[in-house]
Write a structure and sequence with these properties.
heterodimer, A: 209 residues, mainly beta, four-stranded antiparallel β-sheet, 3 helices, 12 strands, B: 115 residues, six-stranded antiparallel β-sheet, globular
């Protein structure tokens, strides 16, 4: 069985263990996911499993998406994501539920961070800004110098500055599984997970065990 | 709060009655020392209550020796809370009794409420 799930972030809370210690926990409604395609090294050049999540109104999907799913008699699924696999003991149509993960295991989580819009250097890169006093005006959150002087006479490409921040793919590694509720398709992870509530989340086996 | 968040809430402790700001309470907390467990009592006035599922908590203030104020916050859903005993209610006009921090001696008293 492949260890991967697609889910929806529900929000954060805290739960107590038997000793009474409270842990910060992110709840994710994950699965049931379906195996929608298997990528084989011989044919595709790499080994992976494509999973689908969240049944949707078939009118919401394009003809291509529907055809891809219908060929294997799968329900209309809104989200398809690929997971790299070591062993290929799955067949198209298999269902994967939260119980592939056990309490105490470590997982990596991929999400899309909250969008911050066009952000200045202070927020985006932690620039210190200018001084508040000593005759300054309009310099409080200014970036200061971005480059050198007459040589080279220009700002190097890729220099840090203001720009779009957030809405990036973010991976958080080695989160501990605190809670698995197979009945409600619910999984609880110790700590924060990128993205807003309702955001799409991928859960994978931890790279660093 | 979403229903799924509610689903993982810890059960309500039946040994904790409804608390109000101004109540004089004694809180019995389970404390682990090595492999021995004992119960510690903390007695004082409830100066704040906060809701929020598993994060429900309340703060108890007491004046220790030499007039040093001690405040301790307890998680209402924590399994470490053994029980809470309400000893008296007070007539108070606000939800957070932070004004008690600035008062000492007789001025820090609250009028008892009988019901």
């Amino acid at each position: 069985m492949i260890k991967g799930l697609i889910g929806k972030k529900i929000g954060m809370t805290q739960v107590f263990d038997e000793a009474g210690v409270a842990y910060p926990v992110t709840l994710i409604e994950a699965g049931p996911c379906y195996v929608t395609q298997v990528r084989e090294p011989s044919r595709d050049g790499y080994a992976a499993v494509q999973l689908g999540f969240s049944e949707a109104n078939p009118k919401r999907l394009t003809g291509g998406q529907l055809g891809h799913l219908k060929a294997n008699e799968l329900p209309p699924l809104r989200f398809l994501r690929e997971f790299r696999a070591k062993s290929m003991e799955v067949a198209v149509g298999d269902q994967i539920k939260v119980d592939v993960f056990a309490v105490g295991e470590r997982v990596d989580v991929v999400g899309t961070s909250k969008g911050k819009g066009f952000a200045g250097g202070v927020k985006r890169y932690g620039f210190r800004g200018g001084p508040k006093t000593h005759g300054q005006s309009d310099r409080l959150r200014a970036p200061g110098s971005r480059g050198s002087g007459t040589t080279p006479g220009r700002v190097y490409k890729g220099a840090r500055g203001a720009g779009h921040m957030g809405s990036d793919r973010v991976t958080v590694q080695s989160l501990k599984v605190v809670l698995v509720d197979a009945e409600r398709n619910l999984i609880g992870l110790h700590g924060a997970v990128p993205g807003p509530k309702g955001g799409l989340i991928m859960i994978k086996e931890a790279r660093k065990q | 709060m979403s229903n799924l968040l509610k689903a993982v809430e810890a059960p309500v402790n039946p040994n904790i009655p409804e608390l109000r700001p101004g109540d004089v309470v004694s809180v019995h907390v389970r404390i682990k020392e090595g492999d021995r467990e004992r119960i510690q009592e903390f007695k004082g006035t409830v100066i704040r209550l906060r809701n929020g599922g598993n994060n429900q908590n309340f703060t108890v203030r007491r004046v220790a020796s030499n007039g040093i104020g001690v405040e301790r916050t307890f998680l209402l859903r924590s399994p470490r809370l053994d029980k809470v005993v309400v000893e008296r209610h007070s007539r108070v006009r606000r939800a957070q009794l932070y004004f008690l921090r600035e008062r000492t001696g007789k001025r820090a008293r609250l009028k008892q409420k009988f019901d």
